[in-house]
Design brief:
Helices cover 21% and strands 14% of the residues. The protein is α/β, with parallel strands linked by helices and 145 residues long. It has a domain at 71-144: Ribosomal Protein L15, Chain: K, domain 2, CATH 3.100.10.10. The radius of gyration is 40 Å and the shape is elongated. The protein has helices at 44-51, 75-81, 90-95, 130-138, and strands at residues 71-74, 86-88, 109-112, 121-124, 127-128, 142-144. It has 4 helices and 6 strands. It starts with 43 loop residues before the first helix and ends with a strand.
Length: 145
């Protein structure tokens, strides 16, 4: 039979008010601000950020690109959409449905030399690649503006 019992409870080691089992620096390492209660140190990255100069001048348009993207149109498309001696402008291309508005405005247009053209056309207010210029002039067309 195993009915033996203690007459007194086990004694627990008394905890002393010095942070028990954490002598001297109490787990805080060394002296100074880091050893004090309630220490607040600004993160190092914050100091680096504060040293950078502020970029001024763009405001709410910060993400708007300086570069104006042009809309490209190939010669083969112009040959199908326009007849002989047609006047080709960005607004004429928009009316034919060959280009779309960008940000509510008719964009800048560049004519590229992909495809062939057999009849004369006149191109106004558009950028034209070297290959496209050679093909348009060979077909008897002109480039203005």
């Amino acid at each position: 039979m195993n009915l033996l019992q203690r007459t007194t409870p086990n004694k627990k080691a008394k905890t002393v008010g010095r942070g028990s089992k954490r002598g001297k620096t109490s787990g805080r390492g060394t002296k100074g601000q880091k050893a004090r209660a309630g220490h607040k140190i600004r993160p190092e990255i914050r100091d680096r950020i504060k040293k950078l100069p502020k970029l001024r001048g763009r405001g709410k348009n910060m993400n708007k690109a300086f570069r104006v993207d042009v809309t490209v149109v190939n010669l083969s498309v112009l040959a199908k959409a326009f007849e002989v001696n047609a006047r080709i402008t960005p607004s004429a291309l928009f009316e034919k449905g060959l280009i779309r508005r960008v940000g509510g405005k008719i964009p800048a247009v560049k004519v590229l030399g992909t495809g062939e053209i057999t009849h004369a056309i006149t191109v106004y207010d558009c950028e034209v690649s070297e290959a496209a210029k050679a093909k348009i002039e060979a077909a008897g067309g002109t480039i203005k503006g």
